Amino acid sequence: MAYECITAETRGTTGLIRLDRPKAMNALNARLISELNGAVDGFEEDPHVRCIVITGSEKAFAAGADIKEMQGKTFVQAYREDFIAEWERLSRARKPVIAAVAGYALGGGCELAMMCDFIIAAENAKFGQPEITLGIIPGAGGTQRLIRAIGKAKAMDMILTGRVMDAREAERSGLVSRVVPVGELVDTALEAAERIGDLSMPALMMAKEAVNSAHETTLSEGCRLERRLFHSLFATEDQKEGMKAFAEKRTPQFRHR
Ligand code: CO8
C-alpha cells in the first residue's frame, strides 16, 4: 500500500512507523488513521517484526485530530459512523508498541501515544488534552487513560484547563518512561525495541496482557490472571532456555521470538 500520511519501514526486527503530515503538524485525519491501522496490521502479521515504534517529527508527534476535517460533522454523522472507533486499533496490538514523542502530542496525539505500551519523550515534548478549548472533550480514551497514567488531580487539571505539560513534568507524573535529547529519541526507542526483540515473544505478549488487565479488573482477579499466565510460561521452551542460560552464565537464545 502506498502511504501518503505515514511512512513505515522495518529496522532490524522493529517496525518503525512515522506520522508524516508536516504541513498540518501531523494532525490525525481519517486517511492517516487508516494507513496507521494498515501498517500496524502488517507488522503484527510479519513474523520478523517483534516490536513496533511509532514516532512523528521533531516538531510534532501529532497535534491532535484534524480539526478542519471534523469541524463540519453533525451529531448524527459522528454517531452513525461511530467516529473515532477505528482509532483504537493500536490499543489492541499484541506485539509491544513504543511511542517516541518529540514536540506536540496534543488531543488525539496524546491519546495515540497513551495507546502504546510506553512513551519515550524527547526533551521538547509537550503533552496536552486541549479539546475543552474547542468546545469538546477527549474522544479516544484521553479521559480514561490519562487518569490511570497520572492520577485524578493532574488529569483533571489538564483536561479542564487544556494546559500543556512539558517532558520533565510528564516524566515526574508517570506519563512517560524516560526523557532523552531530541536527536537521540528515535535511536533510543529503536534500541529499546531491539532489546525487546531479543526476548521471548510469548512471555512479552503475556506480560503485556497481564499489565493491561490491571486497568480492566480487580486486584485479586488481575493477580489470578497473572499467576495463570506465569504458570503457562513453564510450558514453553523459552522458559527452559532462559533459566538454563542463567545457570550456565550465558545469553539465552530464545526460540519463540
Ligand atoms: N488539526 C488540523 N490542522 C492542524 C492541527 C489540527 N489538530 N494542528 C495544527 N494544524 C495545522 C494548522 O492549522 C496550520 O495549518 P496552516 O499552515 O494551513 O494554517 C499548521 O498545522 C501549522 O500549525 P500552526 O501554524 O498553528 O503552528 P504553531 O507552531 O503556531 O502551533 C500548535 C502549533 C500549538 C500545535 C497549534 O497548531 C495547535 O494548537 N493545534 C491544535 C491543537 C489541538 O487543539 N488539538 C486537539 C484537537 S481535537 C482532538 O484531538 C480530539 C481527539 C478526538 C479523538 C482522536 C482520536 C485519536
Structural features:
single chain; 257 residues; 2-enoyl-CoA Hydratase, Chain A, domain 1; Lyase 2-enoyl-coa Hydratase, Chain  A, domain 2; six-stranded mixed sheet; 11 helices; binds octanoyl-coenzyme A
How is the secondary structure organized here?
Blueprint: E1 6-11, E2 14-19, H1 30-45, E3 51-55, E4 60-62, H2 67-70, H3 75-81, E5 97-101, E6 104-106, H4 108-115, E7 118-122, E8 126-128, H5 142-150, H6 152-161, E9 164-166, H7 167-173, E10 178-180, H8 185-197, H9 201-213, H10 219-233, H11 237-247
Parallel strand pairs: 2-3, 3-5, 4-6, 5-7, 6-8, 7-10
Antiparallel strand pairs: 1-2, 8-9
Could you characterize what this model shows?
- Keywords: Fatty acid metabolism, Lipid metabolism, Lyase.
- Its EC number is 4.2.1.17.
- It holds the Pfam family ECH_1.
- It catalyses: a (3S)-3-hydroxyacyl-CoA = a (2E)-enoyl-CoA + H2O; a 4-saturated-(3S)-3-hydroxyacyl-CoA = a (3E)-enoyl-CoA + H2O.
- The chain is α/β, with parallel strands linked by helices and 257 residues long.
- It has eleven helices and ten strands.
- Strands 1-2-3-5-7-10 form a six-stranded mixed sheet, sandwiched between helices. It has a four-stranded mixed sheet with strand order 4-6-8-9.
- Strand 1 and strand 2 form a beta hairpin.
- The structure holds octanoyl-coenzyme A.
- The site of octanoyl-coenzyme A has 24 residues, from helix 2, strand 6 and helix 4.
